[in-house]
Request: fold
Amino acid sequence: MTRSEAGEEPLDLLGVGTGPFNLSLAALADGVPGLTAAFLERAGAFRWHPGLLIEGATLQVPFLADLVSLVEPASPWSFLSYLKARGRLFPFYFAERFHIDRAEYDAYCRWASESLPSLRFGHQVDTVRWDAGRGAFEVDFTRLDPDGGADGVGRLFARNLALGIGTAPHVPEPLRPLADDPGHLVLHSADYLAHRERLLTARHVTVVGSGQSGAEVLLDLLRARPAGAEGLTWLARTPAFAPMEYSKLGLEQFTPDYTRYFHGLPEATRDRVLPAQWQLYKGVSAETLGDIHDELYRRTLEGGWPDVALTPGVEVTAARAEGGRIALSVTHAEQGTAARLTTDAVVLATGYRERPLDGLLAPLRPHLGRDSAGRLLVDRQQRLVLDPAIGGSVFVQNVERHTHGVGAPDLGLAAWRSAVILNALTGREVCPLPERTAFTTFGLGDRATAADEASQDGASADISRMTLPGPRLPAS
Reply:
């Protein structure tokens, strides 16, 4: 029996999921006077994209984009605190590395996850409902054994929730049947390292996807395959293998200032703007593109060209097994032509999609505000818009790109977003935040007030277009 079932006070905060974003929230919440919190995670331990911890692959953000530093650099849960605890500050100092390896970021997060007292691994949250009598959310969960089997059930009550259930690998529809068939080597890049040895023995490998993951997989395979017999193809829908926007002013679109501005735009404008920003989050680092070109160039020194095809502007429209191989049907957007590519293995670097919350929040469905497209409304403080019958708040992380913009999945905004949640949750400034974070002024009018007014107007406009049943919701 849990303490809340025994009649004690509900938790102030219950987090669902402990990826980097809820881990950041747990780290900043640790030590806040009077705040009771627990974070439940179905996995047995923290792992961050284990299939993509390719040797030498680095984060695309500086090490300061850790769990806490951009809000509280003196926190005991910062990356520098991790280095100090491991006796590695001087080696890091001399390494002069601003962008750390992905494997080191994973190790840092695992260090924090193993020490934070509020985390509970092996706990799968099943259902969330509102208990009006208690004035708290009722959360049912299943305890899992090391093999993932059920090992008991439990219940907790919490006044507020923070949902950070992460994203899931996206497999395009034409390739799902082959990806689900273990007899064919068709896999998402999330599972790359687990199948790397098999891929190295395949005669020909096709990588699909123009982002950083696709580039890193292609580069790793290229470096490991013999010159003249590389047998590699890289396909992408984007019109070019383009570098990620990494200019200093361009990066200001990953600031809280831009997030507030974007949130204040009308829904239709946000939907038009977001796809046009693909190079902010779907491009490849210039360094990785340079490494690929350098590796290809080295393979021309003896004459001839490497057996590598790089083709952007192409979409895979169909896939089928054919004589022990895989036949891909592709079309070229600009030429309007079609072709057939035969390969032995396919790595899908096709990104991730937000995990739907509908199943988890099914009992709350009548109380959830939605926009004209049926998407959940999220206010400036990261709360789902709920009708007044629900007295608590449901905070969300990394499901709000449609309302908060390109920064939603970015690690650089993790600490700031966690601080926003904690301040809203407690009703006080437990984490002081700067009023200004960018040199760019993204909208017209007085800088200090335009973002606030635009955000409130945008939120009101969104709610007025809400299409769900239930009471009319107030503007947030």
